[in-house]
Design goal:
TIM Barrel; single chain; 11 helices; 8-stranded parallel β-barrel; globular; about 30% helix; 9-stranded mixed sheet; alpha/beta; Lyase, Ornithine Decarboxylase, Chain A, domain 1; 2 domains
């Protein structure tokens, strides 16, 4: 049975902690992780939570307790992971366009390094030779993902070294003695079709022949979760079956066994998240009825940045007559959450909940308009646990230096 939080419980949380508030369901995260373990039980596999989706320290500790590793894109995420209890060998550090010093800091912390470009690969190899094994991130030139801004493996992407630069990479490996134990690709987010992963895997297997010390192939992630009621999701069981078959075939042909690594982020936490807001005002114009809530893209930027869809419900008037509304925020720029959305009649003071709010919700929030960031609450074992206090006014000033 799928794990969900009832509307009644969400209303209770909104009243207890105030709104806006982010709510995360621990048992739903566990359910998603178990899907991955079952789907890939047929081949050696590891899963590293892509914590850029949500980095609250309690979420990190909970996911570490499930047995996952951690995928980090900044040295600060690495530090958070270590603080949360992840062992260095269970952390994968995949930064992009950073200075060598940040890579070196990751090396000193003992984590797995995934090098994104030839310049850093050469600098690292010249300085450290074969003293520290690394992974190389490749750009497979595959367009994948649900939105251009979420696609990271196409020819114009800034991510990874091109697969067509293999000769250059081989020269660096030969001249520096660097040890490559992993190869990596990530084509984007919201990938519906498992064939995208399989096409990338074919490329990775071709590259694998160039790396005699290879131990793993990392296929990134990008598993799609449903947003609409009848939306599709990545069939991880189908993917697991086909990836397992491909790895067994490769092992039989090449005489060596490789691990497959994945970096699920949104897949683990998106559906576990709820964002509760309050209707401040109903504003009727000549063309539209607006529901103005006590939030904006300063708290949930995905609809404005990616044109993403979030299902919205009126949880304090669920039996009201359906009406058509445009749901907007209260900041000084266009911050439309939803155009022409059918909702049960909304009254001023009603609570609206945004679903699929666990990934890139709070994580991408800001203090734009000098608005305060919301609280975060974890629901675990039926308990409502405050895991981040709501900002107060003093938080806006805490790092400012008054000189005038």
């Amino acid at each position: 049975m799928a794990q969900t939080i009832s509307n009644a419980e969400l209303v209770a949380i909104g009243k207890e902690f105030g709104t806006p508030v982010y709510v995360y369901h621990a048992e739903k995260i566990e359910e998603q992780y178990q899907h991955l373990e079952k789907a890939f039980k047929g081949c050696p596999s590891r899963f590293f939570y892509a914590c850029k989706a949500l980095t609250n320290i309690n979420i990190l500790r909970y996911i570490q307790g499930l047995g996952a590793g951690l995928d980090c894109v900044s040295i600060n995420e690495v530090q958070l992971g270590l603080k949360a209890g992840f062992a260095p060998e269970n952390i994968l550090f995949t930064p992009n366009c950073v200075d060598l010093s940040e890579i070196e800091e990751g090396k000193e912390l003992g984590v797995n390094l995934n090098i994104d470009n030839i310049s850093i690969l050469e600098q690292f190899g010249n300085k450290y030779g074969g003293s520290y094994p690394i992974c190389i991130r490749f750009n497979p030139h595959i367009m994948g993902g649900g939105h251009y801004k979420m696609s990271t493996g196409h020819i114009d992407s800034k991510f990874g070294s091109s697969v067509h630069q293999m000769r250059h990479i081989e020269r660096i490996i030969k001249t520096t003695g660097i040890h490559v134990t992993g190869i990596h690709m990530h084509t984007g987010s919201d990938i519906k079709d498992v064939s995208v992963f399989l096409a990338g895997l074919e490329i990775m297997f071709e590259l694998a022949d160039h790396f005699p010390e290879l131990k793993f192939v990392d296929l990134g992630s990008g598993f799609k979760v449903p947003y609409h009621e009848n939306d599709v999701r990545t069939d991880v069981y189908d993917l697991g079956e086909k990836v397992t078959e491909a790895f067994k075939k490769y092992s039989a042909e090449k005489g060596r066994e490789l691990e497959v690594w994945f970096e699920p982020g949104k897949f683990l936490v998106s559906e576990a998240g709820y964002f509760i807001t309050k209707c401040n005002v109903i504003k009727q114009t000549t063309a539209t009825v607006f529901v103005g809530v006590n939030s904006g893209f300063n708290h949930l930027i995905r609809p404005m940045m990616y044109e993403s869809y979030h299902r919205i419900e009126n949880i304090t008037n669920p039996e009201g007559n359906p009406r058509i509304y445009t749901v907007v925020g209260h900041i000084c720029e266009t911050d439309t959450f939803a155009w022409d959305r059918k909702l049960n009649e909304v009254r001023e003071g009603d609570f609206l909940v945004f679903y699929n709010a666990g990934a890139y919700g709070f994580e991408m929030s800001s203090n734009f308009n000098s608005r305060l960031k919301p609280a975060e609450v974890l629901v675990k074992d039926g308990k409502h646990l405050l895991i981040r206090k709501r900002d107060v006014f003093e938080d806006l000033l805490k790092n400012q230096v008054e000189v005038l």
